[in-house]
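Dear colleague,

Following up on yesterday's call, I've attached the two folding results inline so they're easy to grep. Please treat them as preliminary; we haven't cross-checked anything against experimental data yet. The first protein's sequence and structure tokens come first.
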Amino acid sequence: MIVSLAFWSLLLCATAIGWHAGDRRDYGILIAIVSAALLTNILQATLVFPLENILVTTVNIALLVILWRFAMLSQRYWPIWFTGMHAATCFLGVVALLLPPGGNRAILEMAAAFWAIPALSVMTIGLMLDQKAASKIS
């Protein structure tokens, strides 16, 4: 419960800061990130193993494709870092799906969820630095 509350607090703060510091290109990716988080939360609340894990991993992989495209088209560095950290989440999620239920699977799922925190931090700091650099230019 506390971890979930911390994640949602960080996500909301990162989204608010990102919306303020970002531009039009960033708004779409922010909406995709929040939508994926909401969908993941709904899936986890309504479904049971193994369907829940399969669908959550599918949502994460779909978000990875969106992030990858955004990172490749962007002139900034934070999308590359964010995409790399989310790729780690996807990789660990797929590996967790391949393991039998038990302690190792739970550890991998927690490790996959961990990467959301540094990824959101990188996004927030990157957008703030981009905004600062843009204000120096103009």
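Below is the second protein, in the same order (sequence, then structure):
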Amino acid sequence: MITDRLDLDQKITGDFDANIAQPLNIRVSYPNAPFERPDDEPWIHFSIVYGDKLQAEFGGPTRRYRTPGVLFCNIYLPLGLGTARIASIAGRIASRYRDASRDGVYFETSTIGESRREAGMWKMTVQCPFYGESLE
């Protein structure tokens, strides 16, 4: 069970760091953390957007609440380095968070968006919808 939004943040961020960032040796721009953008290698902008907490179960002395959200991973690659590496990174993220439970966070169907040029970089976005449940 998830205790609060901070708990959700820590579980998702910790799993991402341990299973994506470290094994791929890729720099990640986490919210409100120092970051220096590399000039010659891929990097990821990591963000979590939450929806409103909703009551999922009624009755009884405790109630179950569900907090939905989406993990956005914007992957950037300098122009001219091809698309294979960015597609591989996106595939790894989507596979990790597709229809899976990770430390009490339930991920639904991940999607990989179109790739495009943005701010002198090549960008591809992976969206991973999820929810966490709490008892109150």
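For the second protein, one point worth flagging: The longest helix spans residues 5-24.

Best wishes,
A.L.
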